[in-house]
Backbone:
């Protein structure tokens, strides 16, 4: 027995296979398209592999069992990540619409999935580009004979190193004090840091210039942003394996022994660079690599905001794409100023922890459930056969129908219960602490729960909210139609 929810009017909302073929021929020269398949593949790789692989994944791996963490990670990658990615690509290609239009075509009550996706993309874009700004700051400082984080600065009395640096390390001091100028509490903003402000503006300017013409510019940029990181990583791998103690480093990778936190890329890796000969060269290569990784991922994130904005018709139709892109980037740049305050690193960790976790799980579950049980898995299989010539094999069938939705639902419930029951803490850099230079865990202020609700709750609630709004509009239209018919009938009877 096949489980599928009723979905009246679907055939009228989507194009048939024959109509798609005809549309492709008619719009062959008008639609924006990639110059070749390589551009498309590189764009997908750049979006899937980003800064998180260097900046976030390693410390998560270390804090959850070291190398043992890779076992559940790989299992979920095969049973969850890849099936969902395949499903999103396939349904988007089939319906030839952006997020809002696509889910509205499947069912008008599912438009909220597209809105939630846009909310997640916006949240991630706000802080992701701040990290690119940090990378630019380190890159600019790499063009020196002696890297500024390789040794502690001298104090004002010229009697020795600065106390805070001497008590910690030169790389810690450069990151927490000379780069972030971090405050000991999230409540203490510390003001804007002008050097980070310049880098922040520079990062958004570069992004705007790269996406101003859509795939016409991003398609060419990915040749560099999606390939250079792998060249640099290969160079680092070869160089690392030739160093003394490289085997000990590999063993340490699979042994959990502490957490480097979100500053991993700016502390551990930078310290390793100082141990290498010609360290400025390695530093330049490393931060160019991070810049390319971050920029290629931002192409996808910001497009996930721009396209729904155009569908929602927030700006006048007469506005060119360049203007819409410029206003959107300017808005994100201004909101992102919160991350370049003295407390900015705490805010960034908050956004990263809650803005890109629960909402992503909810969106992913709703997407898969909607395709399989509302759009119809049999219809979806026929669509894929139409596009590539054969239906998906048994692995995809069992993953889409059962395994992936169940896994996502269980993870969502477990994550939600865990976060609700645990005490919310954040790690701070506090020179006045007795445990310094160890990061001190402090309790979030009570008002931070409202921020967490905005980050995690509002995108999720956007899905049922949009469905309720659509239902109310439909009911109102039905009442107006009934009233109109009743009035016409009354008028006809009166005439007779």
Residues:
């Amino acid at each position: 027995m096949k489980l599928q929810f009723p979905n009246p009017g679907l055939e009228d909302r989507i194009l048939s296979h024959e109509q798609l073929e005809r549309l492709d021929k008619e719009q062959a020269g008008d639609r924006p398209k990639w110059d070749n398949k390589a551009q498309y593949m590189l764009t997908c790789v750049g979006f899937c592999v980003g800064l998180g692989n260097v900046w976030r994944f390693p410390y998560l791996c270390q804090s959850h069992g070291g190398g043992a963490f890779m076992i559940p990670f790989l299992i979920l990658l095969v049973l969850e990540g890849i099936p969902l990615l395949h499903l999103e690509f396939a349904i988007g290609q089939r319906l030839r619409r952006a997020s809002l239009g696509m889910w509205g075509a499947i069912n008008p009550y599912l438009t909220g999935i597209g809105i939630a996706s846009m909310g997640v993309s916006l949240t991630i874009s706000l802080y992701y580009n701040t990290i690119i700004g940090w990378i630019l700051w380190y890159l600019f400082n790499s063009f020196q004979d002696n890297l500024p984080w390789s040794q502690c600065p001298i104090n004002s009395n010229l009697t020795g190193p600065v106390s805070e640096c001497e008590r910690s390390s030169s790389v810690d001091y450069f990151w927490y004090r000379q780069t972030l100028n971090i405050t000991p509490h999230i409540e203490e903003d510390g003001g804007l840091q002008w050097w980070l402000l310049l880098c922040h503006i520079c990062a958004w300017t570069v992004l705007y210039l790269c996406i101003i013409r859509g795939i016409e510019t991003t398609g060419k940029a990915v040749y560099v942003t999606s390939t250079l990181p792998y060249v640099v990583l290969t160079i680092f791998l070869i160089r690392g394996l030739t160093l003394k103690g490289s085997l000990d480093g590999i063993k340490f990778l699979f042994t959990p022994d502490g957490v480097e936190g979100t500053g991993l890329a700016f502390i551990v890796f930078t310290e390793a660079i100082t141990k290498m000969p010609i360290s400025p060269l390695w530093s330049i290569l490393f931060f160019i690599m991070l810049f390319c990784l971050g920029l290629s991922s931002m192409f996808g994130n910001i497009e996930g905001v721009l396209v729904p904005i155009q569908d929602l018709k927030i700006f006048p139709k007469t506005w060119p794409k360049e203007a819409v892109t410029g206003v959107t980037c300017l808005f994100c740049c201004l909101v992102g100023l919160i991350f370049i305050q003295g407390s900015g690193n705490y805010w960034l960790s908050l956004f990263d922890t809650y803005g890109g976790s629960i909402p992503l799980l909810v969106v992913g579950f709703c997407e898969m459930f909607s395709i399989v049980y509302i759009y119809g898995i049999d219809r979806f299989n026929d669509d894929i056969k139409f596009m590539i010539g054969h239906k998906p094999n048994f692995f995809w069938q069992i993953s889409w129908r059962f395994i992936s939705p169940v896994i996502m639902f269980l993870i969502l419930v477990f994550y939600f219960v865990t976060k609700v029951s645990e005490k919310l803490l954040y790690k701070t850099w506090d020179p006045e602490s007795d445990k310094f230079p160890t990061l001190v865990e402090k309790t979030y202020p009570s008002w931070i729960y409202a921020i967490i609700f905005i980050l995690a709750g509002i995108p999720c609630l956007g899905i049922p909210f949009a469905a309720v709004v659509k239902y109310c509009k439909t009911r109102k239209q039905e009442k107006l139609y009934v009233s109109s018919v009743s009035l016409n009938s009354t008028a006809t009877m009166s005439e007779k």
